[in-house]
From TrEMBL:
GO terms for molecular function: ATP binding; tryptophan-tRNA ligase activity. Catalyzes the attachment of tryptophan to tRNA(Trp). GO terms for biological process: tryptophanyl-tRNA aminoacylation. This is Tryptophan--tRNA ligase. It is found in: Cytoplasm. Gene3D superfamilies: HUPs (3.40.50.620), Tyrosyl-Transfer RNA Synthetase (1.10.240.10). Its EC number is 6.1.1.2. It catalyses: tRNA(Trp) + L-tryptophan + ATP = L-tryptophyl-tRNA(Trp) + AMP + diphosphate + H(+).
Amino acid sequence: MSDTTPSGASARFTPRIFSGIKPSGGLTLGNYLGAIKRFVEMQDGEHETIYCVVDLHAITVWQDPAALPGMTREVAAGYLAAGVDPDRSILFNQARVGAHAELAWLFNTVARMGWMNRMTQWKEKAGKNAEKQSLGLFAYPSLMAADILLYHATHVPVGEDQKQHVELTRDIAAKFNHDYGCEFFPMTEPLIDGPGMRIMNLRDGTKKMSKSGESDMERINMLDDADTIAKKFKKARTDPAPLPETVEGLAERPEARNLVEIYAALSNTTPEAVIAEHAGAGWGTFKPALADLAVEKLAPISAEMARLMGDPAEIDRIMAKGADRAREIADPILARTTEIMGLLR
Ligand code: ATP
Ligand code: MG
């Protein structure tokens, strides 16, 4: 790897995908459609794929140390059950590869306070209590930039909510390259495409569905059983009107649009196609059809997750092996970064 070639996109870098999910609660349908489902599909493309359970991000808000190992294994089980293949992808948890935290520290000296202050996720998660939040929550995007750039990842599949953090990753890479007069880090591109990139809360169509959200009724969990899924969709907030004749008719109807998007993402089609098929349908028809579709897609995955979680030692073995492979890529990149910065090691 040379860092003296002219800049430009990231053509000289190995096509490589990095992405992660926090073990901050049970996996949701948003995590599945915005992240995991696409991680699986991307294994068939031209990229090397690296998928991480980002436990160091999870602890930026309080996590019970007795529960964290189980949640970490649950996210790993979600990846595996959905079809992430540990032979074709590198799958591990972040805490096993110390270079993530080390590079994050180096990036803390590159990133600016003002950049962090502008982050929507910081504003939303800190709320009115910014003074009481951990420093880690504030510096979160710096760690995320480290996760990505430690592997010179060229592409990051994420949901819409993470777009701003990938942009900040590019800002950090650009400032590092500029300040140190090199072209060492790539300009990573976010991959945010298709329906399902921003699944909304079932009780409030203006907020995104999150695993750490307050009420269980606002989200579908990947481990929910068929009855629970049917009940949650039945109680999902909607307006009284039936589905419109065209997608334009969803414009001012966030809850209706969300349910159509979920349907489209689960069935690998477009909102237009869903509307073409269901135009004029009332919620009494559409919601049960949506619940059946979600159960059809999620039930095999949740059954496999439950089976995998019955053998935690096997999950740990897979993540430890993935971490060994991750270190092989990460360690030389970290070493070169410290060398560029003039640190003696
Ligand atoms: P938390 O509430 O703890 O932040 P989360 O549900 O937002 O949890 P993350 O671990 O922050 O999940 O994000 C993991 C991945 O899932 C990211 O790529 C993120 O963009 C994606 N994702 C999260 N929520 C959604 C959603 N509602 N729709 C689509 N993608 C989502
Ligand atoms: Mg989140």
